[in-house]
Design a protein that fits this description.
With 286 residues, the chain is an all-alpha fold. It has a single domain, classed as Orthogonal Bundle (Hypothetical protein af1432), CATH 1.10.3210. Helix content is 69%, strand content 0%. The chain has 17 helices and no strands. The chain starts with a helix and ends with a helix. This is HDOD domain-containing protein. Pfam families: HDOD (PF08668).
Length: 286
């Protein structure tokens, strides 16, 4: 793989801010207003999101969907934030942003967008539960990091579909997990690409870094424990959905880092795999 081609791809990534279905400044301001030290009110958040009427409409459509099961309809973003919580509104906005990226590109025929979102949501749920049990990271942040952890795979499929196909073929031919096939193909993996995208969106390090290091949490300079939560959740989800020694081996090596037993992690993952929330979430984005 030509290094020039890789560098060209990496230089394109920050420009994907312009592909968001709303103003790129929205995310930065939203996270500033909903951070732990922020004094912003629900009305302030409503005003930030309300400047984009299209975004407001989409937020309210999702907030009032069967997935959330609200007893009465919410008619403003500030009311939706009050009922669902700030973190849920952030997740809705992020999900709309990621899903909106897919509208302007032709994806490879073999890329299953519904399965992509199923895995993201499944990992997010496991990561949140592991965070609650271990008290590592904030459960809401771990859910969001899980929801975004494979955005790099989506970006490769959108912006470099031929390379995505070549990586998948390499993985299948050599029996490699995706992350190792990516590294062999062009010397970096989807976690790095995803983190570059999220950083360009002005997301905080508490979310960017667990995504960046979710395959090598031991190398994370400042968020190793949080990256381990996402890595463990990802491996557990794969272990439930797929047969293979790679993820089982990774689970065995990771569990001691969070002082969890392998059986405990798998029990969490298997229980959440039966959740109806996963399919409802996927249908929500269809």
């Amino acid at each position: 793989m030509s290094q020039d081609k890789i560098q060209t791809f990496l230089r394109e990534i920050p420009k994907m801010r312009d592909d968001l279905p709303y103003s790129p400044e929205v995310l930065g301001k939203l996270f500033a207003q909903t951070g732990a030290s922020s004094m912003a009110s629900l009305e302030d958040v409503g005003k930030t999101l309300g400047r984009d009427q299209g975004l407001t409409t989409r937020i309210l459509r999702l907030a009032n969907s069967a997935y959330y099961g609200l007893q009465s309809e919410v008619v403003s973003v500030s009311r939706a934030a009050a009922v669902l919580g700030m973190h849920e509104i952030r997740n809705i906005v992020l999900t709309l942003g990621v899903n909106g990226l897919t509208s302007g590109y032709a994806m490879p025929d073999d890329f299953d967008l519904a399965e992509y979102w199923r895995h993201q949501f499944y990992v997010a749920m496991i990561a949140r539960e592991i965070s609650r049990v271990t008290e590592v990271g904030k459960p809401d942040n771990m859910f969001t990091a899980g929801l975004l952890h494979d955005i790099g795979k989506l970006i490769i499929a959108l912006r470099r579909p031929e390379d995505w196909v070549a990586i998948r073929e390499l993985a299948e031919e050599e029996g490699l997990p995706d992350v190792e096939a990516e590294d062999e193909y062009w010397g970096l993996d989807h976690a790095v690409i995803g983190a570059l995208v999220l950083k360009s969106w002005d997301l905080p390090p508490a979310l960017v870094e667990p995504v960046n290091w979710h395959h090598t949490p031991e190398l994370s300079p400042g968020h190793s424990n949080e990256a381990t939560v996402v890595c463990l959740a990802d491996c557990a989800a794969h272990a439930v959905d797929e047969d293979g020694e790679y993820f089982s081996s990774r689970l065995e090596s990771l569990c001691p880092d969070l002082e969890m037993a392998l059986d405990e992690v798998m029990e969490v993952a298997e229980e959440l795999a039966e959740s109806k929330d996963i399919e409802q979430f996927v249908r929500l984005l269809a």
